[in-house]
Design goal:
The chain has 198 residues and is α+β, with helices and mostly antiparallel strands. The chain has 2 domains: 2-150, PH-domain like (Roll); 165-198. Helix content is 30%, strand content 36%. The strands form 3 sheets. Strands 4-5-6-7 form a 4-stranded antiparallel β-sheet, with helices on both faces. Strands 1-2-3 form a 3-stranded antiparallel β-sheet. A 3-stranded antiparallel β-sheet has the order 8-9-10, covered by helices on one side. β1 (2-6) and β2 (9-14) form a beta hairpin. α4 (166-178) runs antiparallel to α5. The longest helix is centred in the last third of the chain and has 16 residues, at 130-145. The chain is globular and about 40 Å long.
Length: 198
């Protein structure tokens, strides 16, 4: 086994294959270890804890293109997140399970497109590796069939522990707009979604 430090990740050579370990959080590291390729998403994996709610855990990751660039799709115990973290800007789009009406997977030879229908909108995440996309679509369908609940809820748990209150979510949204990370239109759209979740 041989190791190289690389962009915040530790690259290990194991039986001829390079495997990245990120040492971010156990749940994120476990999901990232299942990715065949982390090219173009290392920064997003490192920054993922910044967009997660308290108590939120990552169950599955995939890479893909949504909107203006490559990013990371994270399936958590509470929502589906697309994260694109550039040098000058950050794009975060989240889809709470109670807002997702259906999921479609369209696979090609190597890549495919994951289509999420949520709150009357259609989000297409393209260039998702075929194995990751199919597995993600299957997990999402199972989650939706279970009514958005995690596959194995904790005994005695009532409401999702740690979902931030509306005031703190709105405050975070205000900070993103003030820093220029999101446009006024994105701000209005996300603010409406937060208020609709009440």
């Amino acid at each position: 086994m041989r190791a190289w430090p690389h962009t915040g990740a530790l690259l290990l050579m194991w039986r001829g294959a390079i495997v990245a370990t990120f040492n971010v959080r156990p749940d994120i590291d476990a999901a990232a270890a299942k990715l065949n390729n982390t090219f173009g998403s290392k920064r997003e994996i490192q920054r993922l804890p910044e967009v997660l709610w308290e108590g939120e855990t990552v169950e599955m990751l995939a890479t893909g293109v949504y909107g203006k660039g490559n990013g990371l799709v994270a399936m958590t115990n509470q929502r589906l997140i697309f994260l694109k973290h550039g040098v000058l800007s950050q794009q975060v789009e989240d889809f709470p399970y109670n807002r997702i009406s259906s999921v479609q997977w369209s696979g090609g030879l190597i890549m495919g497109t994951l289509i999420v229908f949520a709150s009357g909108n259609k989000a297409e995440i393209k260039q998702v590796p075929k194995d990751q996309g199919r597995a993600l679509a299957d997990q999402l369908r199972a989650r939706l069939a279970a009514g958005g609940a995690p596959a194995a809820p904790a005994a005695g748990a009532s409401a999702p522990a740690g979902a931030p209150d509306v005031a703190s979510r709105l405050q975070t949204l205000d900070q993103l707009r003030a820093s220029g990370a999101i446009t006024d239109e994105e701000y209005r759209d996300r603010r409406a979604r937060i208020l609709d979740s009440l």
